[in-house]
Specification:
Layout (H helix, E strand, L loop, with lengths): L25 H4 E3 L1 H16 L7 H27 L7 H12 L6 H13 L15 H10 E3 H4 L1 H5 L3 H4 L2 H6 L2 H21 L8 H27 L22 H6 L6 H6 L15 H11 L16
Antiparallel strand pairs: 1-2
Helix pairs in contact: 2-12, 3-4, 3-5, 3-12, 11-12
Length: 314
């Protein structure tokens, strides 16, 4: 992969016009996104409460299936395929994987990949890493997507981090938050309709429809969003560090997070070998995203699969 082009980001310590120390006050560089905040907080609270009142085994099964499809779309797709180019697949399959990740409702691949590359470039540096836990757990899981820094959310800037993806018209077309809202509401409607026709009651089962709406429509997005949030919070705070990593990076391995999000919890391994398609480097480190990539390789659909060279640990 060609050397990654980077954007000139706003340096909070150097911008003139702020306080006496030359630091721009936070309100001047960030802005609360009110529509997103209202929708995010409302649907998150609903996803935490409603599953206790609306439950069915088919809805739970559908949730597990959809969580797996969209979760692997993010882990094996957005992360390992797009952000790090750890392997190559035919373009038709790349589009399928992209759509699986997009249905997790975490923005299109341009923004997602740009943020991940920015995270690696400035790992655990407050004010530069978009979601470091050094700015608080609330910042990682909610704050950075709601109170938006201009140097993070400016489209012209973040697209400079993804010149490889920005050349693709389909990925550029997906880079529109209005499409994210539309897709999310469409998913809510589809989950409600499908659930209504798989219930036990004859005709349209309203209770089953609501169960699918809650578990597949609401909970899947929230579960995946915060499972990935755990990678950026817990996996920089609690776990083991078998490898020394550069700069301020404090990434750690956390097996519980790895179980929740398809092997991504082996985060110190990943920061030590960012281009590797495999994150679970030991036999006991469960890594479902790698198993999916391995299977694609075995059937001839994944090529140029990158693995780490041997290296001494800390």
């Amino acid at each position: 992969m060609p050397e990654m082009e980077t954007a000139t980001l706003i340096d909070l310590q150097q911008i003139p016009g702020g306080d006496g120390a030359g630091r721009l006050v936070e309100e001047e560089i960030s802005k609360l996104d009110v529509p997103f905040t209202v929708i995010n907080v409302t649907t998150t609270v609903a996803a935490l409460i409603l599953p206790f009142f609306f439950f069915s085994w088919p809805a739970l099964a559908a949730f597990v299936i959809f969580y797996t499809i969209t979760g692997l779309g993010l882990t094996a797709g957005y992360h390992r395929l797009f952000a790090h180019r750890s392997y190559v697949v035919p373009m038709w399959l790349e589009y399928v994987i992209c759509l699986c990740g997009y249905l997790a409702i975490q923005r299109g691949p341009l923004f997602w990949v740009a943020m991940h590359r920015l995270h690696h470039k400035h790992s655990d540096v407050p004010g530069k890493d978009p979601h470091t836990p050094k700015e608080g757990l609330w910042h990682v899981h909610f704050g950075w997507t709601q109170k938006r820094r201009k140097d993070v959310w400016n489209r012209t800037l973040y697209r400079r981090l993804v010149p490889d993806l920005a050349r693709n018209r389909f990925y550029v077309w997906l880079d529109d938050e209005r499409k994210d809202y539309a897709t999310y509401f469409l998913l809510l409607i589809i989950s409600f309709v499908i659930g209504g026709f798989v219930g036990e009651a004859p005709g349209f089962d309203v209770y089953s429809a609501v169960c699918f709406f809650v578990w597949v429509g609401l909970l899947n997005r929230v579960a995946l969003l915060h499972a990935f949030g755990l990678i950026n919070s817990v996996c920089h705070l609690i776990g083991t560090r078998p490898y020394k990593t550069a700069g301020h990076d404090e990434s750690v391995n956390n097996g519980l997070v790895a179980l929740l999000i398809f092997g991504e919890g082996w985060h110190n391994n990943h920061h030590a070998f960012p281009a590797s398609a495999r994150h679970g480097l030991r036999w006991y480190q469960i890594d479902p995203a790698w198993y999916a990539i391995w299977l694609l390789k075995k059937i001839g659909l994944a090529k140029k699969v990158r693995l780490p060279k041997k290296r001494k640990g800390a």
